[in-house]
Known about the structure:
Layout: H1 2-8, E1 12-17, E2 22-25, H2 27-33, H3 37-40, H4 55-68, E3 70-78, E4 84-95, E5 101-110, H5 112-126, H6 136-153, E6 156-165, H7 167-174, H8 176-192, E7 199-204, E8 207-215, H9 218-233, E9 236-238, E10 241-243, E11 246-254, H10 261-277, E12 283-285, H11 288-309, E13 313-322, E14 327-338, E15 344-345, H12 351-357, H13 360-380, E16 387-391, H14 394-398, H15 402-413, E17 420-425, H16 426-431, H17 433-446, E18 449-455, H18 462-467, E19 472-475, H19 477-481, H20 487-503, E20 506-509, H21 515-524, E21 528-530, H22 540-549
Parallel strand pairs: 11-12, 14-16, 16-17, 17-18, 18-19, 19-20, 20-21
Antiparallel strand pairs: 1-2, 1-5, 3-4, 4-5, 6-8, 6-11, 7-8, 9-10, 13-14, 13-21, 14-15
Helix pairs in contact: 7-8, 13-15, 15-17
The chain binds ligand LFPHGCPZ.
GO molecular function: cyclic-guanylate-specific phosphodiesterase activity; kinase activity
Domain PAC: 71-123
Amino acid sequence: MSTKVFDSSIEGIVVANSDGKVEMVNPAFTKITGFEPEEVLGEDLDVLRAETHQHDFFETVWEQLVKTGQWSGEYLNRRKNGEAYPEWLTINLIKNSAGKVINYIAIFHDISDIKRTEEKIKHQAYHDALTGLPNRYLFRDRLTQALRHARRNNLKVGVLFLDLDNFKHVNDSLGHDQGDILLQEVAKRLRSCVREEDTVSRLGGDEFTMILNEVLGHDSTVKVARKIMDALSEPFSISGHLLHVNASIGITLFPNDGEDTDALTKNADMAMYRAKDRGKNNYQLFTPSMNQDAMHRLTMEYQIRQGLENNEFILYYQPRMDLALNKVVSSEALVRWQRDGNRLTMPGDFIPIAEESGLILPLGEWILKKAISQALAWQDQGLKGLKVSVNISSRQFQQKGLANMVAQTLTETGLDPRLLELEITETTMMMDLEKAQRVMEALGRMGVGFAVDDFGMGYSSLYYLKNLPIDCLKIDQSFIRDLSTDPNDTAIVDAIISLCRTLRIHSVAEGVETREQAKYLRQKGCEQIQGYLLGRPMPYHELREMVVNGIKPKL
Ligand SMILES: Nc1nc2c(ncn2[C@@H]2O[C@H](COP(=O)(O)O[C@H]3[C@@H](O)[C@H](n4cnc5c(=O)[nH]c(N)nc54)O[C@@H]3COP(=O)(O)O)[C@@H](O)[C@H]2O)c(=O)[nH]1
């Protein structure tokens, strides 16, 4: 029976006598190690000892055997062909009734498969499945190690935080599969920009971080950032498409910009946001003032939220005049924040923060509803046909359900949709042309109008002018400012007015401050004007008076 067990066991078994000479091995032993019985029988057990462990390892094993009669543990052994393999080994001392050792029995099995699975699981836990780069956990671990080493040896470590610019467009236009391939290619290029001992990791989405070990100072980190930007500036060829990808990079240096992993990462992230603010496709070194800015932003975010709850926002209206009719035909709703009593905070101080934090969504909805109900009130007060136009920020325009929300508000209030105009910048429309088309056509069918705000400052693309339901171009005020002195501005304004005429789109000049400007625009055929010449943005009742009394003196 015991012979049968010995022979059929899947575990390798070696029996040695009290002198350590091998007396028996089973077939599993041969299968695992490759040694035939005749090659080991009568030999010292030492012939099976691989030189994969240090001397003190065997001393520990021996000590425990003597003490307890048994040792179990992981052992890195070697097959006959020289290949190393891990095994789980148990050695038992067999004693006779007098307590004298008569045999050593070693039982072992090959745990290569288990080890491989373990390694795989470990790799998956610490690597990004898409790019194979270290993930955020391994990044943190590596940075912690790098800082420990740098502290001990008085060295510097650089951290780069990189975010691809407009990656969402690739995903939206070509689909996620192509987006994934692009991320893999970006990962390869990033890896090629740093040394073997540096770490490039993917935190998720289009965010990557880099640990630059033992750098000399800021110059070295900047060099790497430039190298990365150069590497990314070459277009990527993905499934027949040539894609251009840029990145915004934030840089911190240990110990100057943070003492620990969290501080260095957070500050590099902050610097990356500064790079985005500065027009993307650039790098920024962290400065302590960025921390103050971040604190300011956080406080403002909190206060905007409170302001919404406490009804602190109000709308002002700026008149728009039809030059042929010499009458106010529309007004632009412009938000103000009335906090601390009567002090008005201007939109330039809070709209960008509301945009970044997403608070523009509830704020924008409030603005839209308020402007619609005000326009309705003017109709009821006899100001028939007075339109209202509302600025829609890009985040608001991208949100799901904007068309439904506008349509529902119009239905609920009963305002004629033709009295509402939405102002959108070129950049907003170009972010996702298909979506722009869907939203604008849905609302356009109801009668809502669309004005392109700040025209001339962005793409000025004829494609969207031809394909989107646009009613009006608002010529950016920067061209009007120097209309009489800068021949370039004069030429641009003339060209936009004639473009509007050709495309049968209304032309509106923004920022008109002088009679000369108004006169010139009328002469050139510009249809409407808006600006301080007519009046600054004003409370709703002042606008009503202006419409009722007419613009005096006549322009
Ligand atoms: N998403 C939203 N954005 C809004 C809203 N309300 C305002 N804004 C945006 O904030 C920016 C600054 O607005 P504001 O301080 O109100 O300035 C407007 C006008 O006061 C100013 N203007 C008008 N005429 C003149 C002029 O003759 N000279 C001169 N120097 N400035 C003038 O221009 C601003 C209006 O610009 P525009 O929107 O491009 O027509 C501004 O970008 C607003 O868009 C809001 O409710 N939602």
